[in-house]
Design goal:
It is built from eleven helices and 14 strands. The chain is α/β, with parallel strands linked by helices and 345 residues long. The chain folds into two domains: 128 residues, NAD(P)-binding Rossmann-like Domain (Rossmann fold); 161 residues, Dihydrodipicolinate Reductase, domain 2. It binds NADPH dihydro-nicotinamide-adenine-dinucleotide phosphate (NDP) and N-acetyl-L-glutamyl 5-phosphate.
Length: 345
């Protein structure tokens, strides 16, 4: 198979490392550039010994200098950088004709004013928002394939949007009744040292945070509203739990349609999707079954006493919630089979 030269910016962070894990095993990829300011000039395997001896991994970190990245011949670049700065790096690459898959939140929102409301700063490149595609292949397959700039979704949003969209499209839920409670592993907070997430602080702790307006509400409500054809607002409570990887979401809503219609809508939407595993009615999702995979598992229950639907979903925040989903978009951009490089368990 011909290989596609590919750059990973922010390769020393958790999503960058996860990208490398997937890309070195991907038959159509040659990793041509990896960036990190702290590790520039060092061999990848000295900073990250897990890659020692891995085919294709004999490469050095470079500084995030976009001319140097372009000079490696990269055709596609993954941006695994903090939000608010991805635009600075994306624009010179886009101008040189590279395709960019941005894992940050910078291009996920259609409306620059909503970005400013939730991210507390003016959008750095609003002219690119209409050209960016929300990188959820199950919803935007054709648009992703044709785009130069993919905005890969957030980790919580992936676990919430995928179960709900078919049900909202079919009008089966009371859109005023949506409540979501999510649990995240600590890697969701990134690899930068910070006191509230050191082991001894999180290891005996269960806590909600980000209340009542976590920034992921912006993209969740954007996509749910598009599916419902009306403005949808939800109550969303994220929690930090003492595991390294994984997100579990419990979604409740009052039913407008029947429970049988819920099952039919989910099956119609996802029966041919390789990465959405429908566990079925009466089965609850468990992160233990999806760790280091690109699957999102979805189960659903009918609370007959209240006529509410209870959906559960589980994913690995670093894989389907970030880097795996980004590789799914990469496969679409390069007209590769959807599962290429993503079916390793
Ligand atoms: N962690 C997760 O579960 C998920 C994360 N995301 C998003 O993906 C992106 C990356 O997240 P994550 O991997 O967790 O973050 P990390 O903090 O683990 O890694 C950030 C990376 O960016 C580099 N970096 C930081 N600041 C700069 C800068 N100013 N210029 C250039 N490079 C910089 C860092 O290397 P160095 O400092 O050495 O340059 C490092 O390689 C974020 O936007 C995040 O929101 C999305 C979904 C899930
Ligand atoms: C556990 C934890 O802290 N999770 C992060 C979300 C993960 C993330 O990186 O989200 P973006 O891609 O939208 O930035 C948080 O709540 O801020």
């Amino acid at each position: 198979m011909e290989t596609i030269k590919t750059a990973v910016l922010g390769a020393s962070g958790y999503t960058g490392i996860e990208l490398l894990r997937l890309l070195f095993a991907h038959p159509a990829v040659e990793v041509s550039a990896i960036t990190s300011r702290a590790n520039a000039g060092q061999a990848l395997s000295s900073g990250l010994p897990r890659f020692k001896g891995v085919e294709g991994a004999d490469i050095e970190f470079i500084m995030p200098d976009m001319e140097a990245v372009v000079a490696t011949g990269a055709q596609t670049a993954f941006l695994a950088l903090p939000h608010g700065m991805a635009a600075d790096y994306a624009l010179p690459l886009l101008e040189k004709g590279l395709r960019v898959i941005d894992l940050s939140a910078d291009f996920r929102l259609n409306d620059a004013a909503v970005y400013e409301e939730f991210y507390g700063q003016a959008h750095p490149a609003p002219e690119w928002l209409p050209k960016a595609v929300y990188g959820m292949p199950e919803l935007y397959r054709d648009e992703i394939a044709a785009s130069q700039l993919i905005a890969s979704p957030g980790c919580y949003p992936t676990s919430i949007i995928l179960p709900l969209v078919p049900l909202l499209r079919a009008g089966l839920l009371d859109t005023k009744s949506l409540v979501v409670s999510s649990l995240s592993g600590v890697s969701g907070a990134g690899r930068t040292a910070s006191l509230p997430i050191i082991f001894s602080e999180v290891n005996e702790s269960l806590r909600a945070y980000g209340l009542p307006k976590h920034r992921h509400l912006s993209e969740i409500e954007q996509e749910l509203s598009l599916a419902a054809g009306e403005q949808v607002m939800i109550t969303f409570t994220p929690h930090l739990v003492p595991v390294t990887r994984g997100i579990h979401s419990t979604i409740t809503a009052s039913l407008k349609g029947s429970f049988e219609e819920v099952t039919a809508a989910l099956e119609a939407a996802y029966q041919d999707e390789p990465f959405v595993r429908l566990l079925g009615a009466g089965v609850a999702a468990d992160t233990a079954n999806v760790t280091r995979t690109n699957f999102v598992d979805v189960g659903w229950h009918h609370d007959q006493r209240t006529n509410r639907l209870v959906l559960t979903s589980a994913e690995d925040n670093l894989t389907k919630g970030a880097s795996g989903q980004a590789v799914q978009s990469f496969n679409l951009l390069h007209d590769l089979p959807a599962t290429t490089g993503l079916m390793n368990l």
